[in-house]
Amino acid sequence: MTRFLTSAALVLALAAPAMAETLQFKVLGQPVATGKILNELEKPFFENFAAETGLDATAAFSPVDTTGIKDPEGLRIAKGGLFDIVSLRFSPISRDAPVALGLDLVGQNADYAAAKKSTELFLPEVEKVFAEQFDTKLLGVWPFGPQILFCKPEIKSLADVKGLKVRVFDQSMANFIASLGGTAVPLPFSETQQALQRGIVDCALTGPSSANAAGWPEVTTTELPLGFTVAFNGYGMNMKRWNALSADQQEKMQAAFTRLTDKIWARSEELYTEALRCNAGQTPCALKSYNLKIVEPTESDLAAVKDALKNISFPAWKEICDQATPGCSDAWMSTIGADRGF
């Protein structure tokens, strides 16, 4: 009887399906200073990863500025597998992958509608390059919103940037500032508030909600609501981890990130208009209220940014992108360039 029971138990054990192991992912997120988008959407998504994805999975989430990792290293981190999922900031990572800037050259995206069109047209090229050159599956993109100018000295138009030092975050922006007679100063977002306070830079570019969260209005006087770019971000997964998922798991994962990025697009647009008001002490306001002066863009300001795409940002980017990825500018011209009448 003992031998019989033992044999029966063994047969049942062999016949039973193996228990699936819980999927575990290490996630590198946005900087803490980015505020609402991080706290309301990105962080809760990863903290409730199983419910959000419908997978038996957990995510260990770390904001990038708590790790010692710098923003420009995002694609390298994803490719190397140090983190399985990385919240990629496209301007900094464009040093490794210039194709990322093709979504958001200066003068290309004045508003959310233009930004959405850019992703529809050029995102497939970015996805292909990330996969082939960086072993990274791009799961979705979203914009922080129009990147506008904050200045410590009072300015009345873009013409007043001449002679000033301006914090920028990519080469496309640096070229445009130089065309205005300003001095472009590349600085990480986390260092910019102190740089403004100490006079290392006179002006800086970011979105109104990011500036609000990071306290830039405490050390500036003026905001110029003229969108130079929209500052795209995205979520990349190490390709080996992606390929290790079953087809069903991949479908659920992709669907979850599509829902997340759709929510961020909508929230980003809400935050943009609200933060503009709050930075100027206007109501209604659910963010921190400041007292900046809003300087409305002049017709020449609007024209300068619009013309920058054809005359400054695309020509400079074209050579750099083609060196890194042959055919890059041709892909842009046949999609976004054709759409913009180039």
Note the total helix count.
13
Report how far the terminal alpha carbons are from each other.
85 Å
CATH fold-level label of the largest domain: D-Maltodextrin-Binding Protein, domain 2
Biggest sheet character: 6 strands, mixed
Spans with pLDDT under 50 lasting ≥5 residues?
Answer: 4-18
Structural class by sheet pairing and helices: alpha/beta
Please bin the fraction of helical residues: 40-55%
How does the overall form come out from the CA principal axes? globular
Helix/strand order, N-terminal first: HEHHEHEHHEEEHEHEHEEHHEHH
What is the rounded Rg?
23 Å
Explain the overall architecture.
This protein is an alpha/beta fold. The chain is globular, with a radius of gyration of 23 Å. The protein contains 13 helices and 11 strands. The chain has helices at residues 2-15, 36-47, 49-53, 74-80, 90-93, 112-134, 171-179, 189-198, 208-214, 239-244, 247-279, 299-324, 328-339; strands at 23-29, 57-63, 85-89, 136-143, 148-151, 165-168, 183-186, 203-206, 222-224, 232-238, 293-294. The chain has a 6-stranded mixed sheet with strand order 7-6-8-5-9-11, with helices on both faces. It has a 5-stranded mixed sheet with strand order 2-1-3-10-4, with helices on both faces. It has 2 domains: 23-143 and 232-270, Bacterial extracellular solute-binding protein, family 7 (D-Maltodextrin-Binding Protein, domain 2, 3-Layer(aba) Sandwich), CATH 3.40.190; 148-229 and 274-312, Bacterial extracellular solute-binding protein, family 7 (D-Maltodextrin-Binding Protein, domain 2). Helix 2 (36-47) runs antiparallel to helix 11 (247-279). Strand 6, helix 7 (171-179) and strand 7 (183-186) form a beta-alpha-beta unit. The model is unreliable at 4-18 (pLDDT under 50). The protein starts with a helix and ends with a helix.
